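REQUEST FORM: STRUCTURE PREDICTION
Request ID: SP-0412
Submitted by: Lab K.M.
Chain count: 1
Length (residues): 201
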Amino acid sequence: MSDIRDNETKRAILRAALRHFAEHGYPGASVQRIVDDAKVTKPTLYYYFKSKAGLYQALLDWAYNERYSLMQKAVDGRRTLETQLVAIFASMFEFLKENRDLMRIAFATAFASPGELPPNVNYLEKGQRNFEFIHGLIKEAQSRGELTGKFSSDELARGILGIFSLQVMGYLVDQRQEIGRQRAERIVELFLEGARKRSKA
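STATUS: Completed
RESULT:
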C-alpha cells in the first residue's frame, strides 16, 4: 500500500522486520537487530512505527491490505462467480509465492497465543473486511441464480475460503507444492461442483 512503500527507509525497516519476525517470532525479534539489519537508528524506526508493536502491526496491515487490493482488481470486469474466484485465487497465489514470510506472519497471528503477539494487535477487523468481500460475491452470485439455495451465503463463503486457506497453509509448510492459476481453477471447480445451481431436467 502507498503508506508502506512511499519511502525507502520505511521499506528497508519493514524488510528487515519481516525477516526477523518470520525467523524468531514477535517475542524473539530484537529491535536492535532489526535496525542494524535495516542500517537505521532506533529513533528512525520509532519515528515511522512508534514501537516494535507498531512495526508488527504495519506488516499485518500490509498483508491484509494487499490481499484486499488484489481481490478488488481481480474481479474487475468479470461477471460470473467462477471467473471472479479463479482470478482472485490465482492472484493471491502469486502474491503468496512472492511474499511467503509475510503470509506466514499473517497466518501465524491468527493461531498465536496471547504471549506470542504484541498487545492490542488488530487483524480481525481487516480479516473480516476481506471475508465480507468474498461473502458479497457469493451473495451476488446467489441473487443471479448461479448457486444453489441449499447453503447459506455465509456457509459458502467460509467453505471456499477454507479450501483456499488449506492450500496456502500447505504451501507455507512445503514450497514444493504447486500453486498457480491451474490450482485456482481446480479449487473453484471443486467448490462449484457442490454449490452450483443445477437446471432441472
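NOTES: The CA atoms of residues 107 and 199 lie 39 Å apart.
Reviewed by: T.R.
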